[in-house]
């Protein structure tokens, strides 16, 4: 079990977990089950600075990787949940009067605070007072600031970690989708090549059929020429047969053209799919690199989460 003891200036202050559970700010217990406070990485420092009641002693802490709107929301909640303290705001300062928190003080106290966004995150400055005249900076108050800042930093990094994991999953989905597109293109190329091979076989048969049709037409034309002055009925029947032969050859020629057009279309589709494969392979290479970078980033954030104290 991690210790809830904070040491400053030779003074040791122990926060009783049972009391904390029933205290004003107990909700943090539920959002920080894995954060230990044995090593301090979030630094709370004592300051003497200006606020609405003049220049007074207080505490200041930098909360990295956070947004002021999120910190302000959680800070107000922490200061008001579970008690009758009154919160007011004026000129960018948050004032809470009548806080009852035995882990910080046996007496009711007031707390004034200011949240400022900066390049690294949020700076929180807070002043603790019993009567707006006497301000105190005890180890318990300092630990209170430290615990809140650490919780906010933990949540911010955890959120970043989840967002990066979501990005990784999207990259994996993109890679899988690209591979499926490539496989679909490969299948299309294979199907088209088979279709072309069948069409080329058909063309060979078609060419032979046209040659045979031409021979038969020539023979029929010769016979027709012989019978031109003969029996009219025989001539008429032979002429009809010749026209049918010519129509049959025309159908063969049309089919030949259709096969050539289809082969051209299939070859164009193959060229398009080959270009698509090239694009997808390039995309897959880039995505694979991005995935490795994303994994490294996630590992760094996981280590950062583990190291938050």
Question: What report would you give on this structure?
Answer:
There is one protein chain. The protein is of the alpha+beta class and 309 residues long. It folds into two domains: 157 residues, no CATH class; 144 residues, Helix Hairpins (Orthogonal Bundle), CATH 1.10.287.620. Helices cover 61% and strands 19% of the residues. It contains five helices and nine strands. The strands form two sheets. Strands 3, 4, 5, 6, 7, 8 and 9 form a seven-stranded antiparallel sheet that branches. β1 and β2 form a beta hairpin. α4 packs antiparallel against α5. The chain is rod-shaped. It starts with a strand and ends with a helix. The N terminus is likely disordered.
Brief sketch in words of this structure:
The chain has 309 residues and is α+β, with helices and mostly antiparallel strands. The chain contains five helices and nine strands; from the N terminus they run ββααββαβββββαα. The relative contact order is 0.11.
Blueprint of the fold:
Blueprint: E1 5-8, E2 11-14, H1 17-22, H2 28-31, E3 44-51, E4 54-64, H3 68-80, E5 86-90, E6 93-99, E7 109-117, E8 121-129, E9 135-136, H4 139-226, H5 232-307
Antiparallel strand pairs: 1-2, 3-4, 4-8, 5-6, 6-7, 7-8, 8-9
Helix pairs in contact: 4-5
* Largest sheet, strands/sense/barrel: 7 strands, antiparallel
Which segments are poorly predicted (pLDDT under 50) over 5 or more consecutive residues? 1-40
Number of domains: 2
From the spread of the alpha carbons, the general shape counts as rod-shaped
Q: Give the count of helical stretches.
A: 5
Mean pLDDT: 87
Percentage of helical residues?
55-70%
**DSSP strand content:** 15-25%
Radius of gyration based on Cα positions = 43 Å
The class by helix and strand makeup works out as: alpha+beta
Total DSSP E strands? 9
The secondary-structure element order is EEHHEEHEEEEEHH
How far apart are the first and last residues' alpha carbons, in Å?
14 Å
